[in-house]
């Protein structure tokens, strides 16, 4: 099968190679998927750069990517709930990757059926980005069954892959949303339901203060370079900042808050992938309550160009102007050997 892989850490897009490799085989409780779509998340280039090497030592060569949509081509031993031909959305194991290829192996524990109302691109956008948004909001106390408090939340980097889902999910949970993003994405973020949107490059935006004077019960913090000292005065008495980009210093702050039983707290969050959340998210897309925002598309053969864009314009530079969700792709029925790719890529002008 065709795949894109790298055989050493670093090297950026130039380190990616189009290769022919054997089709992997599904073992116990696994599915072999013929892929229609895959997402690039910031973590994919972080893994290639070696940023997560101590936590995620890779077996090289490595085919990157975890978030996919495809069709079941073969079922491994012990699989009961899926059959050949099922359309699915899956999150692959981060240690093994495998999404940027024609076929990949997924565990049944992180695979859900994709109803016809949900396109492959919409589905492939969900596992990491929407999963993280959902778990961050739950950590703040958001409820999706109508029983939650009408909390006030701040979502930083609301125009990013995680932020765009977080805004929509927060509104589904009946929260009041203040969001930060770059100027040209303000209308997009508003259109997804944010009540107040701040351009983080303006002095008002940089303060992150709610224009209506609200204190935040929770923050879904999706960018970097903001200290606890900046958040603390904005928070309600028991407000929590859920930090999805924790660094050493924020981990220390968070540990200190924990041992001193602080009510206002910084809480690091690492996605804990699970099937129930993925099923919930696919269901919301099916019911047209949640959408995957996609800006552009690329064919599989141009995956390295997409990754080049991602490496050139790395996540969280203060000068970045826009995040875009890019699709790389060709419909499966046009070119069997090509795959539709959804990429969440940060673009800086
Ligand atoms: N902990 C976890 O499990 C987990 C899971 C998923 C992602 N993450 C991490 O979370 C981060 C965000 O992921 P993502 O997929 O949402 O990234 P992304 O799609 O690359 O989005 C980043 C966004 O950052 C915005 N931005 C940059 N500086 C900003 C600032 N000072 N204030 C407000 N917005 C700012 C940009 O806005 P404009 O373009 O509008 O200027 C852009 O939309 C990444 O570092 C990723 O690795 C962690």
UniProtKB/TrEMBL annotation:
<dbReference type="InterPro" id="IPR020843">
    <property type="entry name" value="ER"/>
</dbReference>
<dbReference type="InterPro" id="IPR052733">
    <property type="entry name" value="Chloroplast_QOR"/>
</dbReference>
<dbReference type="InterPro" id="IPR013154">
    <property type="entry name" value="ADH-like_N"/>
</dbReference>
<dbReference type="Pfam" id="PF13602">
    <property type="entry name" value="ADH_zinc_N_2"/>
</dbReference>
<protein>
    <recommendedName>
        <fullName>Enoyl reductase (ER) domain-containing protein</fullName>
    </recommendedName>
</protein>
<dbReference type="GO" id="GO:0016491">
    <property type="term" value="F:oxidoreductase activity"/>
</dbReference>
<dbReference type="Pfam" id="PF08240">
    <property type="entry name" value="ADH_N"/>
</dbReference>
<feature type="domain" description="Enoyl reductase (ER)">
    <location>
        <begin position="11"/>
        <end position="294"/>
    </location>
</feature>
